[in-house]
Amino acid sequence: MAPVAAATSLSAHDQGPDILYVDASVLVVNKPAGLLSVPGRGEDKQDCLERRLQAPFPDALTVHRLDMHTSGLLVLARGKKMQRRLSLLFANRQVDKRYLAVVTGKLPAVSGEIDLPLSADWPNRPRQKVDHVAGKRSLTRYLVLGHDPAVNTSRLTLVPETGRTHQLRVHLQALGHPIVGDLLYGEARYGGAASAASAHRLLLHAEQLAFAHPESGERYCFLCPAPF
């Protein structure tokens, strides 16, 4: 199947989800920043991507998630059978994911990997933390696309080899280059113009998703350029 690209990214206040592909087995959508993937706790956290999609597609079921403030590609299953098949692909690391991020500062190397174990920071939930004692192995590969000296930020491609909660955000913070606009792991203490530029959103976007179709086995690859 040819890659599919989205022209724009919707805001969380738009009426409908940005659907890139749909068939009898799967839905592929571009989640806007500011919208939950699934319902949260409390009445104010019931609006989410899954429920918006279940209005036109009652059998739509979540397979994986993006953080509320992260935009980009998500695949949802249509029915429990497809959900089990897709979940197995994720569990076996047979889904390729690529992200685009803007981070503070200039990285010392053009490419590299961040291999730091992560665990929940229980007293400060939902924060996660680097934990060399009880943390689960977590690996992120990165490639620097460019550096903007005017605001001292760098544009990166990120490939998570594991899928821990907040993995990319914690790994970049631990590297000393937090993602611009990250209010949870923030860059304010690092100073610079990036702090002022971070107000509108978290600059993290899931731009590519590739997987074997759960029914046909055909390899699908979806592309969705970052809106920043």
Overall mean pLDDT stands at: 89
> What ranges have pLDDT less than 50 throughout 5 or more consecutive residues?
1-15, 189-194
SS-derived structural category: mainly beta
Radius of gyration: 17 Å
How large a portion of the residues is in β-strands, by DSSP E? 25-35%
Summed up, the helix count is: 3
Q: Ends: how far apart? A: 27 Å
| H and E string | EEHEEHEEEEEEHEE
* Overall geometric form: globular
Question: How much helicity do the residues have?
Answer: 10-25%
Tell me how many strands there are: 12
How would you characterize the largest beta sheet? 10 strands, mixed
Describe it.
This protein has 228 residues and is mainly β. The strands form two sheets. Strands 1, 2, 3, 4, 5, 6, 9, 10, 11 and 12 form a ten-stranded mixed sheet that branches. A two-stranded antiparallel sheet has the order 7-8. It is globular and about 45 Å long. The protein has helices at residues 49-54, 80-91, 167-174; strands spanning 18-22, 26-31, 60-62, 71-78, 96-104, 111-115, 118-120, 128-130, 139-148, 153-160, 204-212, 219-223. Residues 1-15 and 189-194 have low confidence and may be disordered.
